[in-house]
Amino acid sequence: MPDQLRSFRVEAVVLRHANWGEADRLLTLYTREQGKLRAIAKGARKIRSRKAGHLEPFTHITLQLAKSRDIPIVTQVETLDPYLPLRESLVLTGYASYVMELLDRFTYEQDGGNLSLFRLLTDTLARLCSTAETWAVVRYYEMRLLDFLGFRPQLFECANCQAAIEPVDQYFSPAVGGVICPKCGNGLPRLWNVSVETLKYMRHFQRSNYNEASRARVAPEIQKEVETLMQAYFTYLLERGLNTPGFIKRVKE
After folding, report:
1. DSSP assigned state of 68
2. Which of 102, 114, 156, 163 has its CA 20 to 30 A from that of 147?
3. Sheet holding 192-194, edge to edge
């Protein structure tokens, strides 16, 4: 069999890893070329392994993978960016883990590559390393992720009656997928309150590029309300809560 049929090369970010057998690691990767896939790193848990340092979570790498009957095997690996600052702060570690968990939960193996998602992932990790405005980085990531996955929340018209949203306090429905006007909100269950100011910033992050979005200066109480709404939406879409927001909260406290 020709070499090009037995092996292939990918650019990837390590989402997570787990022990496999006596000395191996099972990697979950998000790749530029094929989307999410798993691979085995033989001997990666041995003390003298040359691969181990390249295969930590949220490391940007290139890999040569050998095809096998089940899961591809790592034969070569090179680090492109270790994103070292993410390992030097528990808060940054938490945010990076949150970014990874969202992508991991929303994607499936063998669903093909998504270059936009891959670029969003690497851009977000680089931004977390280079700015103190982590709140803006994470909120922008959330909005773009929802766009690319087809879950863009409706924020400019009522998601129930399609009427234009007026500059007054509204509701948000994860089940309907967006903002609900006060008239419709009287008859719908499981709604969240949305203030005018919170909706303004959610819209800003949805329609702006990163440079524009990152200039927003959001009051702490509005930040908290935006986070609460986004977590409610993600919980509905994923049918269960995320693990990392609780870790970030404990670290900050």
Report:
1. -
2. 163
3. 178-180, 170-173, 192-194
The CATH homologous superfamily of the domain defined by 86-252: Recombination protein O, C-terminal domain (1.20.1440.120)
Residue 94 has what pLDDT?
96
Structure tokens at 17: 């890893």
* Residue ranges, the chain, pLDDT below 70: 1-5, 52
Instruction: Scan for tokens 């690996």, then name that residue.
Output: 77
**For domain 3-82, which CATH number applies: 3.30.420.40, 1.10.10.1800, 2.40.50.140, 2.60.40.10?**
2.40.50.140
| Helix (H/G/I), strand (E/B), else coil: 202 | helix
Dump pLDDT digits (tens) for 76-94.
Answer: 999 999 999 999 999 999 9
State which H helix or E strand residue 145 sits in.
helix 134-149
Which residues, listed in sequence order, are joined to residue 179 by a DSSP beta bridge? 172
